[in-house]
Design a protein that fits this description.
mainly alpha
């Protein structure tokens, strides 16, 4: 084909048909430009298909992460409910001394800790790969960012609540209780020790301990509220992603 065009050009030049040759040259240039544009368009379409395929995989990965979050959030709710049970037992011991069904040994759960961190593997991968620019729904982009911003705030709240349990309640126990009663095997001279504090009487008479119980329960209620809201938001976001993927496949 190239040889064919060369022969035509040479023939025109030999016949001094410069004007026709000029038109031919312009036409040839236009054909080359059109060919390049078509090739670029095909390349762009192929790249767009690859981008959308990668985006679909990334959004499916986000859905997996969200389902992991929902499982962890449900465990967070269960954990806080167990703490509340221990707190309520403490209140019964303090205010219903005639109730002999509960003992101080059952309230240790109030100092338990559990971390919560949202699973952000897919989200970080999408940010690193600049995948968000491929999403054609701005509302979906905003929903994803809002969800992770909200759960990040929840993680910080959980960290603070754990710190409260550790630095306030656990410290009170170490400072005020007689722990030798519960760790007799750690003291080689336990048979010589004489109990000096009645822990049950201590918690009944301590206003500080009551205040700590109230603070701890308030924080568990907040965690449960935030966890339920995060579960609701994660479920909505999963549905929003599914709707978007279905629309893009039409």
């Amino acid at each position: 084909m190239i040889k064919f065009f060369r022969k035509i050009r040479q023939k025109m030049l030999n016949e001094n048909r410069f004007s026709k040759y000029l038109l031919y040259a312009i036409g040839e240039i236009l054909l080359v430009v059109i060919g390049i544009l078509i090739a670029l368009q095909i390349n762009n379409l192929n790249q767009s298909r690859q981008d959308q395929s990668q985006l679909k995989s990334s959004l499916e990965f986000v859905k997996q992460n969200l389902n992991e979050d929902i499982k962890n959030l449900n465990k967070q709710i269960e954990y806080n409910e167990h703490i509340q049970e221990a707190i309520d037992i403490s209140f019964r011991i303090i205010f219903l001394p005639e109730d002999e069904n509960y003992t101080i040994d059952q309230i240790g759960g109030i100092v338990k800790e559990r971390d919560f961190y949202t699973v952000k593997t897919a989200f970080k991968s999408m940010e690193t790969g600049a995948h968000f620019k491929w999403i054609k729904d701005q509302n979906l982009i905003e929903a994803i960012y809002l969800y992770y911003a909200d759960t990040d705030r929840m993680s910080k709240m959980v960290e603070y609540n754990n710190q409260f349990a550790r630095e306030k309640i656990e410290k009170f126990v170490y400072d005020e209780w007689e722990l030798g009663t519960y760790f007799s095997d750690l003291n080689p001279y336990d048979d010589q020790r004489i109990p000096r504090i009645d822990n049950t009487t201590l918690i009944k008479e301590s206003i500080v301990f009551e205040n700590l119980l109230l603070g701890r329960k308030s924080k568990t209620m907040s965690e449960i509220k935030w966890s339920k809201r995060a579960i609701n938001n994660a479920t909505k976001l999963i549905n929003q992603i599914e709707v978007y993927l279905i629309e893009q496949n039409k």
